[in-house]
Amino acid sequence: MLTDRQLLIFQVIVDDFIQTAQPVGSRTLSKKEEVSFSSATIRNEMADLEELGFIEKTHTSSGRIPSEKGYRYYVDHLLSPQKLNQYDIHKVQSIFAERIYELEKIVQKSAKILSELTNYTSIVLGPAVRDNKLKKIQIVPLNKETAIAIIITDTGHVENRMFHLPENIDAGDLEKVVNILNDRLSGAPLESLNNKLYKEVAVLLRHHINNYDLMLNSIADTIKIPTYDKLFFGGKTNMLSQPEFHDIEKVKNLMNMIEQEEGIYDLIRKNKAGINIKIGRENNNSAMENCSLITASYSIGTEQLGTIAILGPTRMEYSRVISLLNYISADLSAVLSKLYQNS
């Protein structure tokens, strides 16, 4: 258990390092208004904090920086919510000011605004496409041999797929195909489309369309939509502007992980509802050694839809980021609840 004096000195060290990215020495602390102890006392307390594992030396400075253990203690015991300023609130509200009816556009805009407000990398895990339902299919012929299928889901997800048209299929046939598809598949979960296609649509196509079997196979290939969750990023390269990551070798693994996305997906998809904070090695990923990841869930009622995350250095502004994530996840949940109810 830390003494009150140690707690004060430790909190000032963490707050100062978060703001400046510079190791903190006893001389710097002695100039702080809230630290009214002698330099000798400060040095002794810093030595004790270092021995306890809360702060550590750097190779390039005589000052000290918070350790991972220190950050964890700071987050768990010393952090207080930061009240968002009017600019932050206005920027978040701008996400929802426009009348946007597509979930993906709302999620993309959320990622962009979050990265702009924090100067970190924002990640939004969209709802699993497998949970989407088909809203409508349109088919636009390009020529006698080729057409584009436009597949629209209930969340606004749109897929444009080019496919081959069998011989002797005319505009009237295509209109019948579209009507049958929408009649039988509209409202069906994407996962069940293939099954319904062969059980229900095939029978009707056989009675109404020439070369129905070729048409059926073309449609079956066309409506296969990947059902994995989709990641949206804002500020993918923002980490390069952080002082900790000016060493390209140090940041290369992190940037590779962000580009490949799979590692990021694994990091954020298993988090519990609410706010979750993982610091450095707690992420169980070597590329994240100098990074922290804060996630917040968004939902409709009790159903968790997706996750919003901020990836930043371990010295990130935890209090402000948590307040932003709480605010935006609540607004996102409210807007999406209305969107789903209306649809």
From TrEMBL:
<dbReference type="InterPro" id="IPR021153">
    <property type="entry name" value="HrcA_C"/>
</dbReference>
<dbReference type="InterPro" id="IPR036390">
    <property type="entry name" value="WH_DNA-bd_sf"/>
</dbReference>
<keyword id="KW-0678">Repressor</keyword>
<dbReference type="Pfam" id="PF01628">
    <property type="entry name" value="HrcA"/>
</dbReference>
<keyword id="KW-0346">Stress response</keyword>
<comment type="function">
    <text>Negative regulator of class I heat shock genes (grpE-dnaK-dnaJ and groELS operons). Prevents heat-shock induction of these operons.</text>
</comment>
<dbReference type="InterPro" id="IPR002571">
    <property type="entry name" value="HrcA"/>
</dbReference>
<keyword id="KW-0804">Transcription</keyword>
<protein>
    <recommendedName>
        <fullName>Heat-inducible transcription repressor HrcA</fullName>
    </recommendedName>
</protein>
<keyword id="KW-0805">Transcription regulation</keyword>
<dbReference type="InterPro" id="IPR029016">
    <property type="entry name" value="GAF-like_dom_sf"/>
</dbReference>
<comment type="similarity">
    <text>Belongs to the HrcA family.</text>
</comment>
<dbReference type="InterPro" id="IPR036388">
    <property type="entry name" value="WH-like_DNA-bd_sf"/>
</dbReference>
<dbReference type="InterPro" id="IPR023120">
    <property type="entry name" value="WHTH_transcript_rep_HrcA_IDD"/>
</dbReference>
<feature type="domain" description="Heat-inducible transcription repressor HrcA C-terminal">
    <location>
        <begin position="104"/>
        <end position="322"/>
    </location>
</feature>
<dbReference type="GO" id="GO:0003677">
    <property type="term" value="F:DNA binding"/>
</dbReference>
<dbReference type="GO" id="GO:0045892">
    <property type="term" value="P:negative regulation of DNA-templated transcription"/>
</dbReference>
